[in-house]
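Sorry to interrupt, but I need a hand with the structure work. Can you supply me with one protein entry, sequence and fold together? No commentary is needed, just the two lines. Leave the record below and I will have a look.
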Amino acid sequence: MALDIVAAFIYGIITIIGGIIGYINASSNVSLISASICGLLLIFSAFMRLQGQTWGLTLATIVTAVLLVVFAFRLAKTRKFMPAGLMIILGMLTLAVMVHQFVAIRR
């Protein structure tokens, strides 16, 4: 199993859990819905990658990049490390793994 599949799956699960925590702590429906959509897209892309579909890696990379931008704006606005800073760090690690896999596939 490729590392990008594991990274996308784990980041998707963490995203969903973060949305649930955001809903519990702040009663934020937007947090729950957006995190669920992004997390499910990441899990779906990992599943598609597991099935041999290379476009799953593209989908996971796009979703991860969008989440990085969203959390960067949120960190700049709130200046609180949790949860935005942690998600940026995890997202950068995930994106690095995916870009590395892109390079490996293109060779």
